[in-house]
Amino acid sequence: MGQLSMQSRAADGGPGKPLQAETDRPLDPLTLSTIWHSLQRICREMRRVIERTAQSYLISQLKDISVGIWDGDGNTVAIPVGLPIQFVGAKYSVRYIMKEYGDDIYSGDVFLANDPYRGYSCHPPDWGYFRPIFQGSRPVFWTLARAHVEDTGAAFPGAYFSDPYDVHSEGLLIPGVKVIERGREQRDIMRLIFNNVRLAEGVRNDSYAMIAATQLAENRLLDLIGKYGIETVQRCVEIMQARTEQAVRACISAMPDGVYRGESSTDDDGVELDVPVTVRCDVTVNGEQLTIDFSRSDAQRKGFVNCSYPSTYSCSVASAILFLDPALAEYHNEGTMRPIEVIAPEGLVVNAKYPAPMGGAPVSMGGNIQEAVMMAMSQALPTRAAAGWGRRYGQYIYGIDPRTGGLYVFPGYHAEGGSGAVWGYDGYQGSASLGTLGEIARPNTEDYEIRFPWKVISREFRKDSSGAGRWRGGPGFHWEVVNLGGDAGMHTGAGQGETTFAHGCLGGRPTMPNVCHIVHGNGEKVLAKVHRLHKVVRGDHVVKDTSGGGGVGPPEERDPMAVLEDVTINELVTIETARDVYRVVIDRATLQIDWERTNALREAAGPAESR
């Protein structure tokens, strides 16, 4: 079990000795490992069930899904797969439901929550189905399946409307309501819910896929308890949480004590246009404790970029985890979270008061929270520095499909850039936005041409779009599609990065601007800015050029052969950028490095520390 096991040897009694629980009864290491990995496998199996049975494009193809397991007190047990903002802080949702229902919780119950204030969802389109799992008369585990549904009944289809009146404008709000009681569906409640969303049949099918995943988790967990007994399973969970906490504290204690600062801005809030909204964090390392404080962030906004505290908590913890020992990646649980404190005073954009809208929390402020924490942590640990990713630059296009006569909602994860570089490695190319940490899959071009009345003209990496550095970011995209249907609306709420940019690290360049145009049939080219509603008619082209991730380290320190490869093989960098930014001169005729001129350029630039 890698570094996690080694961190725990003192508590285990050393190699070759049986593990000891608090009761001082020996616990077979094979049993511990089997139970722990079984919990991880159950989560992955849950996700697979949803992928194979859900029908909407967002869930079945893009995999906008999160699952997990919590104990009977709402402490995190297993969260191996998912989008950070959807599930890292889901313990707050579990505890909210337990507090609201008290003793009125039974085996076979399922609860639905999507309300950011009463239920602690990150934003209304993310519906979470929670199931308590009983052993005897008490719940010993909770499981969650949460995914982004096609519609929530908001003012516009897709729910990324950036100029809402309040959170109620963003759709139906469900505060942890019991939709199945003792195994019996509450039909009146479900009818009421589905009657208030567009594309109701698709949302219903996706909901049943999530409910089925929680049923599978219950079956698997009860099998596990039946085989090993509840006391053994719970002891294994407690040991793994304690081991993870010990390992995380060891990672933190290895960081230099101090206060490290980071900040990140989104272009605007969707109401007060072209006015950036900024989050600022102070990360304090004090011994084996890490505190992430957002007290200097901007006040909450009228627009849709606000976050609830659980969302801010989720994004902060997920970003801090990136800087811990990679051997811990499969083991995060409540033990990870105990040494990390997140401070976000109420009334700020990171912990907004009701009824502030929160529709853009995952794609706007959530990503900015992650960027700010990454910037601060990169100062604390330069040898694990991580640059910002290409900013999310999605859109929601909705209209009537002439082939079916029905409404369609075309979501976008097609064009935002790749990941930022990290110390020692270039950024991944083609990964989805930072808020998903790569969990969202890139859509299949042929699939969305079949589903939606739009044809892809171009989808390729954009040259010179990577944040330059000793290690460069993953590239952005050039993406062009044409409307083969009728009149449609395009909301650009799911985007940012036209006027604000993700950071580079240690002399690496930040990301560059995103830009989108609508090109009409007469050749007129209109700028389509983020956080606005645009009209697109038949024959219109939507063209996006997006930024890649940020770079790490000065660009002129990049290996010249890596620059040559990016020019001649990867075709991600032009000869001009190689010369002007990376200080590598490539002969246009031979496509070989002119070493004499390259050395002269780099010597003229001087050492990085003197610039």
| Gyration radius over CA | 25 Å
Mean pLDDT: 92
Global morphology: globular
Order of the strands making up the biggest sheet:
4-3-7-6-5-8-9
Strand percentage, roughly? 15-25%
Figure out the total of helices.
16
Number of strands: 22
Helix content: 25-40%
First-last Cα distance: 45 Å
Main sheet summary: 7 strands, antiparallel
Class from helix and strand fractions: alpha+beta
Indicate the low-confidence ranges by residue numbers.
Answer: 1-23
Q: What would your notes on this structure say?
A:
Among the domains are: 385-553, no CATH class; 556-610, no CATH class. The model is unreliable at 1-23 (pLDDT under 50). It is built from 16 helices and 22 strands. The longest helix is centred in the middle third of the chain and has 29 residues, at 200-228. The strands form 5 sheets. The chain has a 7-stranded antiparallel β-sheet. A 5-stranded antiparallel β-sheet has the order 16-17-22-19-20, covered by helices on one side. A 4-stranded mixed β-sheet has the order 10-11-12-13. 55% of the residues are buried. 30% of the residues lie in helices and 20% in strands. α3 runs antiparallel to α8 (200-228) and α8 (200-228) crosses α9 (230-253). It has 611 residues and is of the alpha+beta class. The two termini are 45 Å apart.
